[in-house]
Q: What sequence folds into this?
């Protein structure tokens, strides 16, 4: 069963961001094709049993390796072991990718302004999308909004700047908007639904949500996804169904 569904891959690198946050990369088998925004299912052998969890791919679909971004869940059966990974260790990778949080799902409205709203490790699928030139060609305005609890948990900031410089070279419409919810000194420190309701997010970005033009993706804390969806609906934005509508979501756990 394992060998039919999974391949065995090797850990190539590990980057630790904070005590509870790290990224790792691993080998990518040639058959593993995915679209930016999709997730992989990764397995670990624990006491002779295979435990599997979903992880959105951080890397671009064109990269030779696969990168993932993980939180350490206290006492979590999977991540409490995953956090001790070493380069060279083996991980299982399910052969097919999953998920519908991809830009290709949007048919109407046509691409114009893209809002990528993440909390915590929900940032991952958006990093993949931003490493695809097509994203930058298709959208005039791209707002990446990333909410974390503390400054120390704000991972990937330099990489985001590098990605924007490389993939979005010459693009003038990119904005990275960090939110640090437990730092009252931060420019934005309230939760996403509040910042939408009070207009502060749009004020900082310098643009308004627009049912006629906006594509809005939410990924991260399931309660954030729920509450933000409601705040956006109050503003006249609709869920994307069968290709039509503004909002697409993915719960991260
Ligand atoms: P988090 O609690 O999800 O917080 C990350 C950001 O989301 C913070 O800015 C937080 O604001 C904000 N947030 C939380 N609830 C929100 C809501 N209802 N509306 C809007 N914003 C909201 O922190 P995390 O570090 O990413 O994850 C925390 C815990 O979630 C972990 O310890 C773990 O137990 C679990 N988790 C599990 C998995 C899994 O795969 N099982 C994956 C990720 C996380 P505040 O500071 O105001 O709370």
A:
């Amino acid at each position: 069963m394992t060998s039919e569904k999974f391949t065995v891959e090797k850990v190539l690198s590990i980057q630790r961001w904070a005590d509870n946050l790290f990224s790792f990369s691993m080998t990518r088998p040639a058959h593993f094709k995915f679209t930016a925004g999709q997730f992989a299912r990764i397995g670990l052998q624990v006491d002779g049993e295979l435990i599997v969890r979903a992880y959105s791919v951080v890397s671009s679909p064109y990269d030779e390796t696969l990168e993932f971004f993980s939180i350490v869940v206290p006492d979590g059966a999977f991540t409490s072991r995953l956090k001790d990974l070493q380069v060279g260790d083996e991980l299982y990778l399910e052969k097919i990718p999953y998920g519908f949080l991809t830009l290709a799902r949007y048919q109407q409205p046509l691409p114009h302004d893209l809002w990528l709203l993440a909390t915590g490790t929900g940032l991952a699928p958006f990093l993949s999308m931003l490493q695809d030139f097509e994203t930058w060609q298709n959208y005039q305005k791209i707002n990446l909004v990333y909410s974390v609890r503390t400054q120390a948990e704000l991972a990937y900031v330099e990489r985001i700047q590098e990605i924007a410089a490389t993939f979005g070279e010459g693009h003038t419409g990119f904005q990275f908007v960090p939110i640090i919810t437990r730092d009252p000194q931060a420019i934005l420190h309230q939760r996403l639904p509040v910042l939408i309701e009070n207009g502060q997010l749009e004020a900082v970005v310098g643009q308004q949500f627009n049912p006629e033009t906006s594509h809005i993706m939410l990924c991260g804390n399931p309660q954030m996804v729920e509450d933000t969806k409601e705040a956006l609906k109050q503003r006249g934005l609709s869920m994307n169904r069968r290709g039509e509508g503004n909002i697409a979501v993915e719960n991260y756990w």
Remarks:
- The chain has a mean pLDDT of 96.
- DSSP finds eight helices and eleven strands in the chain.
- The chain has two domains: 3-94, 103-251.
- Residues 222-234 form the longest helix (13 residues).
